[in-house]
Amino acid sequence: MYFVSTRDRNGRRYTATEAILTGLAPDGGLFVPESIPALDPGFTLSKGYAYAAYTALRPFFEGDEAEDDLLDICTKAFDFPISLRENGGHDTLELFYGPTCAFKDFGARFLAFFLEKALERRGEDVTILVATSGDTGSAVASAFYGRNHINVKVLYPKGRVAERQRRQLTCWDGNVESYEVDGSFDDCQKMVKDAFMDRSLHGLTSANSINLGRLLPQAAYYVFASHLYEAKYSEKPIVIVPSGNVGNSTGAFWAKEMGSPIERVVLAVNANRTIPDYLESGKYEPRKSVATIANAMDVGAPSNMERLFDLFGNYENFKENVSSYSVDDDTIRATIKAVYDEQGYVVCPHTACGEYVRRTFYPDAPTIVVATAHPAKFDSVVEPVIGRTVPVPANLFDMISRKSTFVDIPADYHRLFD
Q: In 3-state terms, what secondary structure has residue 134?
């Protein structure tokens, strides 16, 4: 199995380990498979999630140096629950039971265990640069904290993350450093990309969803969830994904391409309308991000669109396969309240975007909405809407209670290496 750059499919071919260690392709493109592999015939739900993820990911690592380590990596990385909350076929995929209470824990922990093994084999060290709009940074920091051969620099936009997210981002020391950037998430993301393109810097890799090692585990839980849904209802679900940088959505599309029982993938975005506007106009126009209460999705120039353009090839094919709807802040609040009033179920602002799209555009269809984060991470938004306190999970409470340490810098990547 080989991977190539989205910007030069006829260029150098990389193994999975090479692509993961490199992070961003040398030409600035993102790594994608030469072709999406078919799902392993040995895929099964009967042995639990870690084994299911292993069989879902195995075709991507065929012939790779990490092939024999893959089951061990999955077993160690995915040691927390994953739940498909049943609601008569209008189900919710709860991905927030990991250490930092967000779906990013799946990709971050897989990447951490994978890189530690790969670097130990090679006798190398790396520095990870990660830009975050909220949840990625804390998941990466938690997963990589204390790992051998790895240093981590986390960049987050000043004043644009929830307070509990900020506490999670800045409660680390040792091999993890946090940087509060005077700018937007897009500025943070540009800093990371600019650093990768600087040939004077060596030993850098990424832990954003631009990194293949973050993205592949996100495909695995869509393989798992769609098969679980089909086993329960004998139908293929429409999967509705709250979307920002589009890595999570790309994982769903790759799972569908592998042959998973997914009817359609739908992207729910906040007021950052880059994708819905493209679908309406046919003209792709990245722009500066707009701040919203679903802040982890505040992305105006989604990196992983490059992978979707590679997958679908042209506008007509893209439009045939991709749907996307925008949800404003008032509607997010109204949806949080409606779900709570009707079901006694509390959702975060990002999950509420997906729930609104389900209720508005697919009310009678078989659906899975992806719950991307625990609502306790967004207490300042959720609690005034539902009129009560959201209990804080123990692992989240531990992180937000620690001392906060960070460096305040302008949006200049050179300052990361002062």
A: coil
Q: 14 has which bridge partners? A: 3
User: If residue 4 lies in a helix (H) or strand (E), which one and from where to where?
Assistant: strand 3-5
User: Do 3 and 183 meet the contact criterion of CB atoms below 8 Å apart?
Assistant: no
Please name which of 241, 260, 237 lies closest in space to residue 250, comparing C-alpha atoms.
241
C-alpha to C-alpha distances, 111 to 19, 116, 192, 245, 275, nearest whole angstrom: 12, 8, 18, 18, 28
Sheet holding 322-326, edge to edge: 83-85, 90-94, 367-371, 238-242, 264-269, 322-326
Q: Which residues pair with 241 in a beta bridge?
A: 267
* Residue type, position 222, single letter: Y
User: What is the largest distance, in Å, between two alpha-carbon atoms of the chain?
Assistant: 57
272 closest CA partner among 347, 334, 329: 329
- Nearest of 324, 325, 359 to residue 339 by alpha carbon: 359
Q: Read off the pLDDT of each residue in 128-144 and give the average, rounded to a whole number.
A: 85
Q: Is there a contact between 374 and 138 (Cβ–Cβ < 8 Å)? A: no
* HSE, side-chain direction, 13 A CA sphere, residue 184: 14
* Structure-token match 């590679």, residue found: 310
Does pTM top 0.70 for this prediction?
Answer: yes
Angle at 255 between CA 134 and CA 215, to 5 degrees: 35
Residue 33: count of CB within 10 angstroms of its CB: 20
Give me the residues paired with residue 313 across strands: none
pLDDT in tens, 335-363: 999 999 999 999 999 999 999 999 999 99
Q: E strands, 174-318, where?
A: 176-182, 204-206, 238-242, 264-269
Amino acid at 394: A
The values of phi and psi at residue 150, to 5°, are: -135, 130
